[in-house]
C-alpha cells in the first residue's frame, strides 16, 4: 500500500515536471478554467447581491392582496367591489377615516434616463388616501402630497434621481394628459422609491382602466392579525384572492429575478465549462500522447496502471485547481461590492444593489473547476493505460 | 536469489509458443510452436531479419505481452498465468530492460532515472540512493550522476539505461538492440559492459540484435526465422 502510494506520488511528480515542456497547452487549459470560474462567480454574485438587497424586510404588519393566481401586481386585477370587501375584512388597523387599506393600480410609462438619455420603464402607481399611512416609513421630503382628483404626481426619490423631468414643479405630458410633479417621497418599502404615485381615481380614466384596481395594500392592527385577515378573505366565497405579507411579496418578486439571473448564470457557466472541459481534455490527451513511450517505459519497469491513471488525473486536477483559484480571485477582486447599474425588470427598474461574491459562491466555483479537472484527466488517463505496453514501446 | 527450479536448470523455458497479432481482419502469425531454454548465466544473442518477431519474443519473455498459445516460464514461474497487476510486480522484481532508444525520463537526472525501478522495492530512500550510485559506478558513470539525459552522449545514456536495468539486481537482463542507435565505438563499450556484467556479475542476458559484431560477444546465438528458432542463420 505504501509502495503503491509512493508510486502514485513519484509518477505524479514526473508528470508535473514535464509541464514546462508543454507550457502553452497547460496555460490554455488553466486559463479556460479560470474563465469559467470568473464568469460563474461574476454572474451568480449578481443574483446573490440582488437577493441581499431584496431581503430588506418589508413591514410585517402590511399585507398585499392580489387576485388569486397572480404572481405580481402586473398580472393581478380587482374590481372596486372586491377592494371594498377587502377593506372591510377583520384585522385591519383603522384611523378616523376608516380602515387603513389602499386599493392601487399601476401602469408602466417611459421616461428618459438622466444617465443615457434613453427611455426606460417607470411604474406609475395610482393609490388611495390611505396609501401613505399604510406604509410606515413613507415620507414627503420635498414639496407636498398630491391632492385627490387632480393630475398631480409625487415621485419616489430613486425615480427622481434616475429620470429627467421629475423635479418638483416640472410638468409631464403622458399620452393625452398633463401632469405636474408636486412632491418627492422616500420609503414605502420594496421598490416604491422607484415609482411615481398619483390618485388612483385620476389614473384609472387616464389609462382607460375603468373602475378596476390591481392590488390592495392594507395595514394590520398587529402582525398577529395577519392570519385572521388572510383567512377571512380566502374563505370568502365572493372573493378569489391571495394574501401575502409585504415581506413575502418582496421575497417572491425578487426570487423570480434571482432565479432568472441564477439560471442564466448557470447556463453560461455550463457552456463555458464545456469549452474548458474540451480544453482540459485536449491538453491531457496531448500530454499523454506525447509521453506514450515514457508511460510505457514506466509500466515496463513495473509501475502499475493505477498509479499512472491517478497521476494523470492529479496533474489535470492541479491545473484545474490553479485555474479555479485564479478565476475565483479575479472574480472576487473584480466583482465583490461592485455597485450595479439599474436593471430594468418591470417595476424593479431602479433597484440599486451590490454584487456579492460569497464564500459559498467561491466554494462552488472551485468545485466546478475540480469536476472539470477530474473529467478532463480521466479519459486521457484511461487511454494512457489502455495502450498495450509492447505496442507503446514501439512508438517514437 | 532466484535459483532455477526447472529440473533441467533452464532459467528461461519457452514451450510451444505461438503468437498471432490481429490487424483488422488479418491474422499475423509471428511465432509458431517455438521452444527455447536459456540456462542461468548465459549471454544469448537473438538474431533474425527485421520483422521476424525478435522484439515480440523478447516482450513475451519480459512479461510485456502474452503468448497466444504455449507457456513462458521464468525461474520456474508460469509468467503467462499472472494477472496484469501481478505481472507488473513480477517485472519489477525479475526483469531489467535495456531499450534501443534508452527510454530515459528526460526530466530526471541520471541518478534519479536509475532510482526509478527502486521506487518499486521496499528500500529506504538512503538505500535507494546507495543502490543507484553503485549501479552508476558499475557502468562507469559515477561522475555523471547529476546530469540530465540531454547532457549525455548516446553511449552514456545507454549506460544509464543499463544501470537502471541492473539497479534492482534482476533475474534476467533483456536488451532490445542495445547498440542499434550507437556508433561503433560507443556500441563496443556497451557490449564490453554487457559482457562484463555477464562474466563478472553472473547476469543472465538475452540480447536482440541484427548486428553480427554484437552477437559475436554473446556466449550463444540463436536465429529467428518464419516463427521458429534455429542455431544456424538462414540464407
Ligand atoms: N502490437 C502489434 N500489432 C500488430 N502487429 C504487430 C505488433 N507487434 C509486432 N507486430 C508485427 O509482428 C511482426 C514482428 O515484429 P517484431 O517483433 O517487432 O520484429 P523484429 O523485432 O524482429 O523486427 C511484424 O510484422 C510486426 O509488424
Compute the number of helices of chain B: 7
Question: Beta-sheet strand percentage of chain A?
Answer: 15-25%
Strand fraction of chain B equals 25-35%
Q: Main sheet of chain B?
A: 6 strands, mixed
Count up the domains of chain A.
2
Given helix and strand content, the structural type of chain A is alpha+beta
How is the quaternary structure best described?
heterodimer
* Radius of gyration of CA atoms of chain A, rounded to a whole number: 31 Å
One letter per element, helices H and strands E, the order of chain B comes to EEEHEEHEHHHEHEHEE
Q: Roughly what percent helix of chain A?
A: 40-55%
What distance lies between the first and last C-alpha atoms of chain A, to the nearest angstrom? 33 Å
Small-molecule binders: adenosine-5'-diphosphate
Structural class of chain B: alpha/beta
| Cα separation of the termini of chain B | 41 Å
Helix content of chain B: 25-40%
Most extensive interface, chain pair and sizes: A-B, 25 and 28 residues
Q: Please compute the radius of gyration of chain B using only Cα atoms.
A: 17 Å
Q: State the low-pLDDT regions of chain A, or none.
A: 341-350
Describe the sheet with the most strands of chain A.
Answer: 10 strands, mixed
Based on CA inertia axes, which overall geometry of chain A fits? Answer: elongated
Explain what you see:
The complex is a heterodimer of chains A (396) and B (235). With 396 residues, chain A is an alpha+beta fold. Chain A has helices spanning 2-17, 23-54, 80-87, 131-134, 157-162, 200-206, 226-234, 246-290, 292-301, 305-335, 359-386, 389-393, and strands at 62-67, 78-79, 94-95, 98-99, 101-112, 119-127, 139-143, 152-156, 171-174, 177-186, 196-199, 212-213, 215-219, 241-245. Chain A has two domains: 2-54 and 253-394, no CATH class; 69-239, no CATH class. In chain A, the strands form three sheets. In chain A, strands 1, 5, 6, 7, 8, 9, 10, 11, 13 and 14 form a ten-stranded mixed sheet that branches. Chain A has a two-stranded antiparallel sheet with strand order 2-12. In chain A, β3 and β4 (98-99) form a beta hairpin. In chain A, α8 packs parallel to α11 (359-386). Residues 341-350 of chain A have low confidence and may be disordered. With 235 residues, chain B is of the alpha/beta class. In chain B, the strands form two sheets. In chain B, strands 6-7-8-3-9-10 form a six-stranded mixed sheet. A four-stranded antiparallel sheet of chain B has the order 2-1-4-5, with helices on one face. In chain B, α4 crosses α5 (154-166) and α5 (154-166) runs parallel beside α6. Chain B is globular. Chain B starts with 9 loop residues before the first strand and ends in a 5-residue tail after the last strand. At the A-B interface, α1, α9 and α12 of A face α1 and α2 of B. Bound molecules: adenosine-5'-diphosphate (ADP). Adenosine-5'-diphosphate binds next to β1, β2 and α1 of chain B.
